[in-house]
Amino acid sequence: MNKKLTFPSIFFLLLRISVGVFFLYTGLSKIVFISGFADDIYNYRLFPEFIINLAAVFMPFFEINLGLFIIIGLWLKETTMLVLLSLLSFIIMISSALIRGLDISCGCFGYGKGQLETTMMMDIAMFIPLAFSLFYKNHILTLDKLIRKKDPES
Description:
Layout: H1 7-31, H2 34-43, H3 49-72, H4 76-99, H5 116-133, H6 143-150
Helix pairs in contact: 1-3, 1-5, 2-3, 3-4, 4-5
């Protein structure tokens, strides 16, 4: 490694790993009981019924892929933007449920699991530093850099 390890590079690596593990865990926990996750989505009362089952099947695999990609640093900028959009959509959905006084589980950690307020705080806590990471150029241990080194055109 020809670059010095700096506090920001280590911080953003640990952030990537933490967010990635979080997304892997939440995705895997939803796969176990997809129909229950569909119930959790329904309880938000935000989506038409025909979308709920599609979302319940799609979201866990989407989260798992985002988790893997952000950990290994594959398409890091694009993956980070998708994670940020996901977190923002979760924050908006949870805020909507809280404003409307819904007494529901967020469904983030599997069927019937996850308190709205706690989950929203975790999402915000991940969102802010992850947004700053988009502007950081010297990420370490990324598949993107490995691919770029082998690509003679880059």
